[in-house]
Amino acid sequence: MKFYRNLSISQKQVVWAWAFLALPVLFYVVIRFYPTGNAIVLSFQKWNMLGARNWVGFDNYVKLYNDPVFWKVFRNTFVYLILGTPASLVISFVIAYHLDRVRFLHSTLRALYFLPFLTSTVAMAWVWRWFYQPVPIGLFNNFIASLGFQQIAFLNSTTNALPSILLPAIWAGLGFQIIIFMAGLRAIPTSFYEAARIDGVSNWTILREITLPLLKPTIVFLVVFSSISFLRIFDQVFNMTTNNPGGPLDSTKPLVLMIYQTAFSSFDMGYAAAQTVVLFTILLTVSLLQLYLMRDR
Amino acid sequence: MADTQIRASADALLRARASARGPRDPAAVIRWTLLAMGAIVMVMPIVYMLSASFKYPYEMYNLNIIPKEPTAENYTYVLSDGRFYRWFLNSFIVATCTTVSAVFFDALVGYALCKFRFRGRYIVFIAILSTLMIPTEMLVIPWYLMSRTFGWLDTYWGIMFPGMMTAFGTFLMKQFFETVPDDFLEAARIDGLNEFQIWWSVALPMVTPALSALAIFIFLGNWTAFIWPLIVTNSQELYTLPVGLTTFSVEQTVDWELIMTGAALATIPTLIVFLIFQRYIIRGIAMAGLKG
User: Fold this and answer.
1) Does the distance separating the beta carbons of B141 and A42 come in below 8 Å?
2) Does A49 map to a domain?
3) How is chain B split into domains, by residue range?
4) Contact at CB, B131 and A176, closer than 8 angstroms
5) Are A124 and B45 in contact (CB under 8 A)?
6) A119 vs B118: CB contact, 8 Å cut-off?
7) In terms of residue numbers, what domain contains A171?
8) Poorest-confidence range of A264-268, B8-12, B120-124?
């Protein structure tokens, strides 16, 4: 105590700072950095959780490169991203843009759009799975049949299954994106719009020349946020295809599901770790791209 | 300050005028109608889930929303073996403990990195921030091995430990502590408060909106978390609600009204909380999302 009292104010601050940070630094080292290193090391080993860990060099990565399932999964993962991100961004922007101009029952409408975001992904995966069932169970097909059309194989078809799983993922994320877009739109001062209106500029030009450029930080944030969530898609796929995870014929399997199965069904830990390193690389690229795009703001 | 206030009130006035013009405009009516239809479509899955949970099997596959013969039997059946209560309790315990811990430590670290001057500050900040780029899915295998070594498999601690602190929250809190003027902290220092007291009783009360926004975000994230609880738990007594719901639904296979009841049980609590704190939650999400 005497020692502490003799310190200068700035020295006391250093002591306090590390007192505040001691436990967190330990946490980040043990729970974040060590496991990251561990995953990378493991990706160069072969291990089934029972025997010894053997060093195999780049064998896991070579195996991955030659694995046709991996390339299918890789493609699926990017299809989720390439369909999901633009679709969800465009829809949520259009809704946010118009909702921002509406006063009557504004907060009720906003709440309804936001509601799906709060639901549990697992619960909703099962609801949508029910909707997609064939006649006479699934609501979609019952509706289609009642109109006199032929029913659609949603989850049982290798071409339709992926978009069918993607749809609830887009649906659940819209509310969040709408709220963020609206907050972004509110941050643009009305004086810009008033000035443009005095100049007699059309609504379309205002949108293109004022709204969208000023919204760039919000757009970049949402693109990255939703890209990462589509690249990491798992809950929906796992729950909508429990009888044949990632099926039919691996047509819906994303990378995270492949990792899960390799690690916890096949117990091929080294191979699974190599897959996580690939996922990490993809996400890192996306994040760095964000930093790059934000820089010239 | 005064200038921005005037600007803000002028903005509000202009918006009010613009909206006053609204209702008479046919375009505005069409806009509103389309938006309202979209909103109804958005909540349809939730409505049909709730509706199905009150239906008898024979009516289950009709498109009507109000059941002709409403029943609570599905709920009695689903709740009868007591597992849902247990899963609900588990989710609640896990989400609450993680939220309390994460908000506490994120605010503590965010404050230390924002308000203290010391060597290594920048390195610690960058190190913590860089963990944002490490996906959970990369860490689950090492976490699983770690849990196996230390006997954390199938325990509450096992489910909770990865989320006890978050880099996102730390970053968010650091941003918000920037808005707390140093003069206040200096005044408290002169009054003889130690640094922990200053943080707790001077700085924290000034960022309560940010704290609650962060708490909402973290609670929601843990309440719906799936992949890690799925991996770390083996016995049904330790399942969280999402993992339990998956198991339950797989068991039912064809009894969709029971699956919908289970899904409704997992959803209703969040719906109630949302209806009560609606404004607060939406503002919190917007705040956390924009600053983060």
Assistant:
1) yes
2) no
3) 2-71, 78-291
4) no
5) yes
6) no
7) 59-295
8) B8-12
In a domain, A26, yes or no: yes
Q: What is the 3-state secondary structure (H, E, C) of chain A?
A: CHHHHCCCHHHHHHHHHHHHHHHHHHHHHHHHHHHHHHHHHHCCEECCCCCCCEECCCHHHHHHHCCHHHHHHHHHHHHHHHHHHHHHHHHHHHHHHHHCCCCCCHHHHHHHHHHHHHCCHHHHHHHHHHHHCCCCCCHHHHHHHHCCCCCCCCCCCCCCHHHHHHHHHHHHHHHHHHHHHHHHHHCCCHHHHHHHHHCCCCHHHHHHHHHHHHCHHHHHHHHHHHHHHHHCCCHHHHHHCCCCCCCCCCCCCCHHHHHHHHHHCCCCHHHHHHHHHHHHHHHHHHHHHHHHHHHCC
Average pLDDT over chain B, rounded to an integer: 86
Smallest CA–CA separation between A189 and chain B, in Å?
7
Q: Within this chain, do residues A187 and A245 fall inside the same structural domain, yes or no?
A: yes
**Does residue A75 sit in the same domain as residue A19?**
no
**In-domain check, residue A54:** no
Same-domain status, A25 and A112: no
Same domain, A142 and A231: yes
Does the structure show a pLDDT above 60 at B263?
A: yes
B15 touches chain A (CB under 8 A): yes
Q: What is the mean pLDDT of residues A78-89?
A: 93
A142 within domain boundaries: yes
- Which pLDDT score is estimated for A246? 82
Q: Can you give the pLDDT at residue B200?
A: 93
Question: A126 and A26: one domain?
Answer: no
- Based on the fold, state whether residues A14 and A87 are members of the same structural domain: no
Average pLDDT of chain A?
89
* Same-domain check for residues A248 and A200: yes
pLDDT band at A78 (very low <50, low <70, confident <90, very high): very high
CATH number reported for the structural domain that contains residue A208 in this entry: 1.10.3720.10
Instruction: Judge: B290–A168 Cβ closer than 8 Å, yes or no.
Output: no
B42:A112 CB<8 A: yes
pLDDT digits (tens, 9 = 90+) for A126-184: 999 999 988 888 888 888 888 888 888 888 888 899 999 999 999 999 999 999 999 88
A278 and A178 belong to one structural domain: yes
DSSP structure string for chain B: -HHHHHHHHHHHHHHHHHHHHGGG-HHHHHHHHHHHHHHHHHHHHHHHHHHHHTS-GGGTTSS-SS-SS---HHHHHHHHTSHHHHHHHHHHHHHHHHHHHHHHHHHHHHHHHHH---TTHHHHHHHHHHGGGS-HHHHHHHHHHHHHHHT-TTSHHHHHGGGSS-HHHHHHHHHHHTTS-HHHHHHHHHTT--HHHIIIIIIGGGGHHHHHHHHHHHHHHHHS--HHHHHH--SGGG--HHHHHHHHHHHHTT-HHHHHHHHHHHHHHHHHHHHHHHHHHHHHHHHHHHH-
Q: The complex's ipTM?
A: 0.88
Q: How many domains does chain A have?
A: 2
The superfamily in CATH containing domain B78-291 is MetI-like (1.10.3720.10)
All residues of chain B having their beta carbon less than 8 Å from the beta carbon of residue A103 are 19, 22
Among all residues of chain B, which has the CA nearest to that of A128?
A: B45
